[in-house]
């Protein structure tokens, strides 16, 4: 069986280094917010060309804490509406709710699976205060258009980067791409006010061996609140400035991430090379391939095809020993958890959920495995 994602194989090359890292942390005798977290935060801020990185417990908390920090800053308040793509992974929507804000669903583009900027405007009310852009499957959203709308309506833009570590526009990171489109470096522009949430869940492009997450931002005020919020609202021990939570990036996980981060770009390149093969060699009218402009704006967290007879295609691939997954089988508005949305209609979103299938994709997929997958798909 060709596995959808072989995590054991992905982590195998690091085994000795991981063991040594465990020994280092044991020798240090400091297990919470120690040197490894500090080192990772510095390295990841540098990697993303941003000023601040705040390590947190997971990607969900990263999103929640960004919203809570904006509430502390007085820029958001309970009941404010946040625009979010209707086809996102449920975590994005749950995070908005967790921060006492109101998610407003907007349809994606069928071609990119990312939010359709042309449909945002009509959902904006006097209560709309933010847009949560989700770079689904690893491809950046149309940030130039999203930022333009946000600027016009004075909205905060938050990015869910849980699936797109390392995706770049004009060789820069996605954060504040508004400026990057004009090809100016961050140091030359006015302090932007956005924040991005990352997850290091094991299966992500940069994954640890448990839960982990981070926030990046260039906003000093926001960063200061975030460093405090993740740690019971306290910067100075036993002095609590905010009603915070316990969501700290684990010291050991940070240590593992420090070992893996240097290989992220090379891993993403391997993913893009596999995508290039899939895109040029899969030739089957029954299979719709994903859109990609061949730039580094896509890191192929997932390679998602569509088919009218998705379940049949999946069954066929299983029979041929190729494991696939569906991201995602049920759209958020059809989930039991959101009964009040169940009668709403989002045709593009529903079509996506009915037709998508994720092919095996990871930096450890071998050439012969890729050959075989393509051959089987072409015979379908
Ligand atoms: C994985 C993921 C999250 C949540 O990350 P966790 O670390 O699992 O909490 C949020 N949004 C998207 C789009 C994700 O894929």
What does this structure look like?
It is a single chain. Helices cover 37% and strands 14% of the residues. The chain is an alpha/beta fold and 380 residues long. It folds into two domains: 7-107 and 114-164 and 171-261, Type I PLP-dependent aspartate aminotransferase-like (Major domain) (Aspartate Aminotransferase, domain 2); 264-378, Aspartate Aminotransferase, domain 1 (Alpha-Beta Complex), CATH 3.90.1150. The strands form four sheets. Strands 1-9-8-5-4-2-3 form a seven-stranded mixed sheet, with helices on both faces. Helix 3 (35-47) crosses helix 9, helix 4 (59-72) runs parallel beside helix 5 and helix 4 (59-72) crosses helix 8 (220-229). The longest helix is centred in the last third of the chain and has 18 residues, at 264-281. The protein is globular and about 65 Å long. The two termini are 18 Å apart. It binds pyridoxal-5'-phosphate (PLP).
Q: What fraction strand?
A: 5-15%
Q: Mind telling me the C-alpha Rg?
A: 21 Å
Q: Supply the number of structural domains.
A: 2
How many individual β-strands?
13
| CATH H-level superfamily title of the largest domain | Type I PLP-dependent aspartate aminotransferase-like (Major domain)
| Bound compounds | pyridoxal-5'-phosphate
Oligomer: single chain
**Architecture (CATH level 2) name of the largest domain:** 3-Layer(aba) Sandwich
Task: Give the overall form.
Answer: globular
Strand order across the biggest sheet? 1-9-8-5-4-2-3
């Amino acid at each position: 069986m060709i596995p959808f994602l072989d995590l054991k194989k992905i982590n195998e090359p690091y085994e000795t280094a991981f063991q040594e890292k465990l020994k280092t942390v044991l020798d240090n005798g400091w297990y919470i917010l120690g040197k490894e977290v500090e080192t990772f935060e510095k390295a990841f801020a540098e990697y993303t060309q941003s000023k601040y990185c705040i390590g947190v417990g997971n990607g969900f908390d990263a999103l929640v804490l960004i919203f809570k920090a904006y509430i502390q800053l007085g820029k958001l308040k309970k009941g404010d509406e946040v625009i979010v793509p209707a086809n996102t992974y449920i975590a994005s929507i749950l995070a908005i709710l967790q921060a006492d804000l109101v998610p407003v669903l907007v349809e994606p583009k069928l071609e990119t699976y990312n939010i359709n900027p042309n449909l945002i405007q009509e959902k904006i009310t006097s209560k709309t205060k933010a847009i949560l852009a989700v770079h689904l499957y690893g491809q950046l959203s149309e940030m130039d258009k999203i930022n333009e709308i946000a600027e016009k309506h004075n909205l905060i833009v938050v990015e869910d980067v849980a699936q797109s570590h390392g995706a770049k526009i004009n060789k820069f990171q996605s954060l504040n791409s508004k400026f990057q489109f004009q090809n100016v470096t961050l140091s030359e522009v006015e302090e932007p006010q956005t924040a991005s949430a990352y997850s290091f869940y094991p299966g992500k492009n940069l994954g640890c061996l448990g839960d982990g997450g981070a926030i990046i931002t260039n906003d000093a005020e926001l960063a200061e609140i975030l460093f405090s919020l993740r740690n019971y609202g306290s910067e100075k021990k036993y002095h609590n400035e905010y009603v915070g939570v316990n969501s700290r990036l684990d010291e050991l996980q940070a240590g593992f991430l420090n070992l893996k981060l240097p290989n992220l770009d090379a891993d993403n390149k391997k993913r893009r090379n596999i995508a290039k093969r899939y895109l040029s060699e899969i030739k089957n009218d029954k299979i719709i391939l994903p859109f990609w402009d061949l730039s580094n704006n896509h890191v192929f967290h997932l390679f998602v095809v569509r088919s009218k007879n998705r379940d049949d295609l999946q069954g066929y691939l299983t029979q041929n020993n190729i494991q696939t997954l569906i991201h995602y089988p049920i759209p958020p508005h059809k989930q039991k958890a959101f009964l009040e949305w169940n009668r709403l209609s989002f045709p593009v979103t529903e079509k996506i959920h009915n037709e998508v299938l994720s092919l095996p994709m990871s930096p450890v997929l071998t050439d012969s495995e890729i050959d075989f997958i393509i051959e089987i798909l072409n015979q379908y």
